[in-house]
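YM 10:42: Nucleoside diphosphate kinase sequence, as discussed on the call
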Amino acid sequence: MFRRAAAGVRGGVERTFIALKPDGTQRGLLGDVIKRFEQKGYKLVAIKAIVPSRALAEKHYEDLKTRPFFKGLVSYMTSGAAPVIAMVWEGKDVIRQGRRLIGATNPLEAQPGTIRGDYCISVGRNIIHGSDSFESAEKEISLWFGKSEVYDWQYGNAEWLYADN
Ligand SMILES: Nc1ncnc2c1ncn2[C@@H]1O[C@H](COP(=O)(O)OP(=O)(O)OP(=O)(O)O)[C@@H](O)[C@H]1O
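YM 10:58: structure's back
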């Protein structure tokens, strides 16, 4: 049977990994995050609450392992004070558009109207993560989710979202 790659089709209908971090969960921001992605027209194809192991958090952020904040970042993600809400969203250009919905890494640089621009102040508590490239999305989706946890399903109203599909 045909199986899509984890992140879908590059430049077409893609999938991205979005994670509400423990501060976002603790502050009750999940509903608004889901609302923003749904209202844009994106489709939720996987979601779970998870306290990541240290190994998972370190693998997720392995590109940052030499940075001075790495240890604190891993402790923040794994503390268990609240779970990470891990999600996979699907749709055209969702990787790049997801980053636009989220806003700049430093919330003080993030535009009002973006998630970080509206809800946070500190780079060390910036409430949400989104894959930054097709390669990162592939890696992150397969790191956080098993294949059977990600669903292929179609919006009944897709023709009202896309004119060129
Ligand atoms: N100077 C810093 N101090 C503390 N934490 C930081 C700092 N810079 C980055 N971080 C943390 O590391 C995460 C990853 O940093 P990165 O530069 O990859 O930004 P990003 O891609 O916007 O964030 P994310 O990968 O979480 O979506 C940031 O989201 C933030 O939680």
